Structure formats: structure tokens, C-alpha cells
Amino acid sequence: MTVTIRRIGDSDREYFAYTKSLCGRATYFVYFTDDIWGAMTLHDFVEMLRKHFQVHEVDVAFRDTSIQLKNELLLQLLRDPD
Questions:
Q1: Chunked in runs of 10, what are the mean pLDDT values of the chain (82 residues)?
Q2: CA distance linking residue 13 with residue 29, whole number of Å
Q3: Contacts for 69-73 with beta carbons within 8 Å, 24 or more apart?
Q4: Contact 1, 19 (CB under 8 A)
């Protein structure tokens, strides 16, 4: 299983990490920033996947391409859920 990390749009500090399920029917993703809380969020996401799918290793790959969201409201919700 591979978790892919990509930068969000024009931001230098926001990222998505995502992976497809082993059967390919679902996509799991997490939004995080490049600070200590983001590192903890990414770690917890990878651990959740590892335990849920019962795999011993999860590869993490950084792609140097950014993601452009078509729905800006989704990004606003992720940035400030309150």
C-alpha cells in the first residue's frame, strides 16, 4: 500500500495524503499542514491504514505536482471546520 502526498494548489504549507483501498473501490485522504500537528496527523493516518488493512508496511511517496481543487468550499471546510 502506498500513501501519496501532494501539495494543495498555490499553497506552500498545505497537503493532501491519499491512497486507494486494496480492492480499489474507495479512496482515503487526509488534509494536513507542514507543522508538528500536520506531522502527527500524517503519522496517525498512515497508522490507521496499516492497522485497518493489516499490512506490515505502508510506503509514503511525495509527488512534486500540486492538486487543484475544483470546489473551493471543500478546502475552506478543511481549513476551518468550526
A1: 92 92 85 95 95 92 88 82 68
A2: 17
A3: 69/8, 69/9
A4: yes
